[in-house]
Specification:
InterPro entries: Flavoprotein-like_sf, FMN_Rdtase-like_dom, NAD(P)H-dep_reductase. The chain is 41% helix and 16% strand. With 206 residues, it is of the alpha/beta class. The structure holds flavin mononucleotide.
């Protein structure tokens, strides 16, 4: 089982990679993960690495059954990448009450590659990025993914954390997450991961 942990912002500098790594670290150290008989691999997928242009395919992705039918090589490669994963954790900041355009663009390129796969959302921002989370969840449903009911909302503890995040300076999340986020928010990571595992298990059952 392979879970893609999607890094949902692309600006430079940014804090999203630090938060995504913190999510992976927290999951791997959780009781839920340790007790799994078959441990899924968690792999970072940084949409910035893909450098996708603004959507430029001629077809509607839901009507493309074979990845070779996409017009462009960047889409074929992106399709092959996303086909590899059984489930996803989307990590995204709130931008102006929504989620980053680069993430929407990366999602819109494909359809069948996302379809029927369990997905969880981790959002962050001044107040946890609830609007980002809700909007992203609706889009994941539109892609016919299976989103978890639980979500992770990470609120920046104060203005200094927001400033640090915005300039991409180290947030020291692995050593002291409590200096940036509240303990109950961090606890949501395990609850949400646990639900994601249940959804993945349900899919493999006959
Ligand atoms: C274009 C833009 C819009 C933003 N809008 C919001 C917002 O609506 N709510 C919020 O809490 N923070 C907002 N922020 C602050 C971000 O939460 C913060 O800058 C964070 O570091 C962004 O994640 P990133 O570093 O991975 O890009 C915004 C930041 C940017 C760059």
């Amino acid at each position: 089982m392979l879970i893609g942990v999607v890094i949902g912002s692309t600006r430079k500098p940014r804090c999203c990679p630090q938060i995504a790594e913190f999510i992976v670290h927290t999951i791997k150290n959780s009781l839920t993960y340790k007790q799994l008989e078959e441990k899924p691999e968690l792999r970072l997928v940084d949409i910035d690495d893909w450098n996708l242009p603004l959507y430029n395919e001629s077809k509607i992705p839901s009507q493309v059954q074979n990845y070779q039918d996409y017009d462009h090589e960047h889409t074929r490669q992106w399709s092959l990448e996303i086909q590899k994963y059984n489930a996803f954790i989307f990590v995204a900041p709130q931008y102006n009450w929504g989620y980053p355009a680069a993430l929407k663009n990366a999602l819109d390129y494909l359809f069948n590659e996302w379809r029927a796969k369990p997905a969880a959302v981790v959002s962050y921002g001044g107040h946890g990025g609830i609007k980002c989370s809700e909007q992203l969840r609706v889009v994941l449903q539109g892609l016919r993914m299976i989103p978890t009911e639980n979500k992770v909302l990470l609120s920046f503890a104060d203005r200094s954390v927001l400033t640090k995040a915005t300039i991409g300076s180290p947030m020291n999340l692995l050593e002291s997450p409590e200096s940036s986020f509240a303990a109950e928010e961090v606890a949501q990571i395990e609850t949400t991961f646990s639900e994601l595992c249940q959804l993945m298990k349900k899919k493999t059952e006959p």
